[in-house]
Amino acid sequence: MPYTHSSTTIPVTDIRIGSRHRKDLGDIESLARSIDQLGLLQPIVIRPDNTLVAGARRLAACRMLGWQHVPIYVAASLDDELRLLWAERDENTCRLDFSPTEAVAIGRAIEEHEREAAKERQGTRTDMVENVHDVEFGKTRDKVGAALGMSGKTYEKAKTVVEAAEADPETFGDLPELMDAESISAATRELRRRQQVAELEAIEAKEAKAIAGVYDVIVIDPPWPMAKIERDVRPNQAAFDYPTMSEAELSELVVPTADDCHVWLWTTHKFLPMALRLLDRWGLKYVCAFVWHKPGGFQPIGLPQYNCEFCLYARKGSPRFIDTKAFSTCFEAPRGAHSEKPEAFYDLVRRVTAGRRLDMFNRRHIEGFDTWGKEAAA
Questions:
Q1: Do residue 267 and residue 187 come from a single domain?
Q2: Which residues pair with 46 in a beta bridge?
């Protein structure tokens, strides 16, 4: 038997700490509160010569509480330095903390008891009992979090993930597993992303926006006053008689944005200043420029080769991206037909946004977008 139990206690001052490799004992106050409430669940382990084997944090907490004596186990077999090193190693490595979902499970059980205790503290008056959860919520959350070794806010985030999975297993059922495998933060980010997608993709929301004629995502490739390209205007709107449009005409364009809307505006080097002015006139806030690096390009005499196009990203309100991984403002893609924008760009937009999408003045039908233009209808 490696351990011999001693039913007696010894003075705290009799325990010799010796040389320890763990220097940071962490949050001793929380451990001290636990010991004060529940007692010392695991006695201090020492060698026969009173040298500490295991329990440095427990010993520090007992000292913080002012204990004069502590219960012990005597590890008679740890009679050499190598075994002592193994003991210190195993004490800190041969353990398994609660997974986040396990922490939530025990935390919810603690919460239930805390709520009952809060009701007892508040008495039996109906009006007070009905409001007791709101009154005590912050205290209970923080108390439970501390009991689990995490902040109250962190515990609440983990619980939100679990509750979402319980409420809608089809949409969120895999998130607790993600939380345990990666982190609480990763799961809560994915939860927010899916919630936003669900909100934007809701049939009711789409129908309401369709009736209102507005969109969550809009790509605009205007007929800049440079090339003679025949296009139709958006159906059911006053027709423009144009092969191209002037800045004044483009300024009068009504961009059918929802309250929160992503907007991408394609432009070239020549019309970049005009594009920025148009965003301002349409009431949109410029954020950044996406750059399409394409093979070849026109090179004016005495100037560099123009081998890229710009797609200015702007927004109305506060739209959110549903995915920002591998989300760069520069991308490479081959050329298509005249003025045709690359499928790689639309793949990107579909991946990072949700909701109703519109491609204005488009050259072809784009999957996932409503269309506006004669060529797209062909």
A1: no
A2: 52, 74
